[in-house]
Amino acid sequence: MRKIVIAGNWKMFKTQAESENFLRGFLPHLEETPSEREVILCPPFTDLSVMSKYLHGSRVNLGAQNVHWEENGAYTGEIAAPMLTEVGVRYVIIGHSERRQYFGETDETVNLRLKAAQKYGLTPILCVGETKQQRDAGETEKLISTQLEKDLVDVDQTNLIIAYEPIWAIGTGDTCEATEANRVIGLIRSQLTNPHVSIQYGGSVKPNNIDEIMAQPEIDGALVGGASLEADSFARIVNYQ
Ligand SMILES: O=C[C@H](O)COP(=O)(O)O
Description:
By secondary structure, this protein is an alpha/beta fold. It has ten helices and eight strands. Helices cover 37% and strands 17% of the residues. α8 links the parallel β6 (161-164) and β7.
C-alpha cells in the first residue's frame, strides 16, 4: 500500500519565531485532513527543536533538509543523524537539486547520506529530476534512470520516499503538466524493486494545481517549496480534494 505524503520544504526560510507563528495558523486546518495523509514539515535545522516541542502530540512529522553520513566528526557545516533523531526528526530530504547544484552533492554522496539516514531510523526523501536543457535534449528518462541506479545502491527500498522534481519547474511557477509528471513517476516506479515506495511530485505545486496533480494515479504526494511557507496555502495543499 502506497502512502500519501505531503511535505513542505522550507529551504532557508523562517526563524524560530516565524516557524511558531506558522504552526499557530496551520495546525487548526488539520482537523479537516484525512487521517491517512502523512504531513511533514522540513524547516531549517535551527527550527527543529522548538517545532518538535510545539508539535508534540500533533500528527505533523518533522523532516530535515540534509544529513551527513558519519555519526560525528570534523565536518564543519554538516549535521549528523543522531542530532536529528534526538530532536524528533523522522524524515530527511536527500539529493535536492539545490544541494546538487550549489553544494557539490553527487550521486555518490547522495548514496552515502541515504544509507546513513536509514541506519539511524530516518526515512529519506530522495530527490531526482532533470534540468530544462536535459529535458529539451530528450535525456529525461536516461538522466533519472542513472540517478536512481547510482543513488540507490544498497539502499533499503522499504524505508524510502522518492520525489520527482524537474529542476525547471522548481520555484518558477512553470509546473510540469500533471500527466507528464505522472508518466515520469511511472517510469521511476518501474525501476524500483519495491512497488510500495511513495513517489511525490515537486516543482511549483500550488493550491490551484494540487487537485489535478493528486488526481494522477502514479503520484503519491507532493514536495512543496514556496507554497508551504504560508499556513493557509499549505493547508489548502494538504487538504486537496
Ligand atoms: O523541495 C521543494 C521543491 O524544490 C519545490 O519548490 P517550489 O514548490 O518552490 O517550486
